Amino acid sequence: MGRKVHPYGFRLGYIKDWKARWYAEGEEYAQLLAEDLKVRKLVRDQVGHAGISNIEIERFPRARQLTVKIWTAKPGIVIGRKGANVNSLRKDLETLTDKKVHVDVDEVTRPELDAYLVAEGIAQQIERRISYKRAMKQAVQ
């Protein structure tokens, strides 16, 4: 049986960057990884309808600080009126992690070129019972 390399790991450092930037050893690594998964799930649950493409997490070891960078096609929905949505998201993340959280929202300039956003759009069209052939043709165009 052949040994396969995951495509994402194969491209790390060359054309793709890490999804999380921090270092830990032993049991602390497992705890921080589980916390990362909870943070990603919370962000996707609260503002998943805003076309979130990527969530990057950066930790600072001694400051007990967490930076969450959200790449989205619709930053206005994530930020909300006068920053209300992003402030409530930050407070929820602080209660989840017991750390100071800084949330950055960046716009995906060309969402039609982002594979995750295109796939999400196709999935939503299929859920609305649009013909899959039509959805695929629109995505390819």
Explain what this protein looks like in three dimensions.
This protein is α/β, with parallel strands linked by helices. It has 2 domains: 15-108, GMP Synthetase, Chain A, domain 3, CATH 3.30.300; 110-141. It is 48% helix and 19% strand. It is built from 6 helices and 4 strands, in the order αβαββααβαα. It has helices at 7-11, 27-47, 75-79, 84-97, 115-127, 132-140; strands at 20-21, 52-60, 65-72, 100-107. Strands 1-2-3-4 form a 4-stranded mixed beta sheet. α2 links the parallel β1 (20-21) and β2. The model has no long low-confidence stretch (mean pLDDT 90).
Briefly say what this structure is:
By secondary structure, this protein is of the alpha/beta class.
- Chain-averaged pLDDT: 90
Query: Class by helix and strand content?
Result: alpha/beta
Percentage beta strand:
15-25%
* CATH secondary-structure class of the largest domain: Alpha Beta
Number of strands: 4
Kindly state the percentage of residues in helix. Answer: 40-55%
How is the CATH topology of the largest domain named? GMP Synthetase, Chain A, domain 3
With strands numbered from the N-terminus, the spatial order across the biggest sheet is 1-2-3-4
Largest sheet: 4 strands, mixed
Give the count of helical stretches: 6
- Give helix and strand order, one letter per element, not per position: HEHEEHHEHH
Keywords:
alpha/beta; GMP Synthetase, Chain A, domain 3; 2 domains; four-stranded mixed β-sheet; 19% strand
Helices and strands, with pairings:
Elements: H1 7-11, E1 20-21, H2 27-47, E2 52-60, E3 65-72, H3 75-79, H4 84-97, E4 100-107, H5 115-127, H6 132-140
Parallel strand pairs: 1-2, 3-4
Antiparallel strand pairs: 2-3
